[in-house]
């Protein structure tokens, strides 16, 4: 019985059905990707074909983790919810994010407020003070359930989005930046963050900045 159970939970079909029954289909890789793995050939962004005979998806990890290939939404709202007047001043850091709020701080507003225009798709927004502040998010894709071989060989496009709106009581400017790293990094926490050169693999590194 133990061997039969071990065989059952090692089968991808079991975890796919588990995800369907618990309404977690979003954590699964796209169906064309699953078919490509079954066929041992994978078309990648560079118009090349990768032999994936030795690779497979870790369905168990992504389904039990609850994230996998679903959209990743950073969660740091609780720190604002417990702060006085929903406003953070100074610096707060964790393994997942860094908040550096200068001057009067960064305020979380619900359904619009002094610094945010109401929007039907946005329940929470963050109004920055009249000085440079920053919210930095760190996401470990592998820990979230993305398979390492997908990142190394398939190298899919990663889409990052953020809704923004200028304050209605003054002019403002926002810099939106993203950086992809394959090695463990040592971040220097400052405005316009830098990464130490010794931890950068230039072949697997990309940085974008939009203003």
From TrEMBL:
Gene3D superfamilies: Galactose-binding domain-like (2.60.120.260). One of its GO terms (biological process) is SCF-dependent proteasomal ubiquitin-dependent protein catabolic process. One of its GO terms (molecular function) is ubiquitin protein ligase activity. Residues 69-211 form the FBA domain. It comes from the Eukaryota. InterPro entries: F-box-assoc_dom, F-box_only, Galactose-bd-like_sf. GO terms for cellular component: cytoplasm; SCF ubiquitin ligase complex. This is F-box protein. It comes from Caenorhabditis brenneri (Nematode worm).
């Amino acid at each position: 019985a133990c061997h039969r159970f071990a065989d059952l939970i090692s089968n991808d079909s079991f975890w796919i059905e588990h995800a369907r029954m618990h309404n977690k289909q979003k954590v699964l890789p796209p169906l064309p990707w699953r078919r490509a793995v079954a066929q041992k050939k994978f078309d990648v962004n560079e118009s090349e074909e990768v032999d994936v005979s030795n690779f497979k998806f870790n369905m168990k990890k992504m389904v039990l983790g609850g994230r996998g290939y679903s959209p990743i939404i950073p969660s740091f709202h609780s720190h604002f919810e417990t702060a006085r007047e929903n406003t953070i001043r100074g610096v707060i850091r964790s393994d997942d994010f860094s908040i550096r709020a200068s001057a009067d701080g960064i305020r979380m507003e619900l359904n619009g407020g002094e610094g945010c225009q109401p929007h039907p798709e946005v329940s929470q927004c963050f109004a920055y003070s009249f000085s440079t502040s920053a919210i930095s998010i760190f996401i470990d894709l592998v820990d979230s359930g993305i398979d390492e071989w997908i990142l190394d060989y398939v190298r899919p496009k990663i889409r990052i989005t953020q809704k923004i709106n200028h304050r209605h009581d003054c002019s403002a400017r926002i810099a939106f930046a993203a950086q992809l790293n394959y090695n463990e990094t040592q971040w220097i926490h400052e405005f316009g963050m830098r990464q130490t050169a010794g931890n950068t693999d230039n072949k697997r590194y990309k940085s974008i900045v939009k203003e």
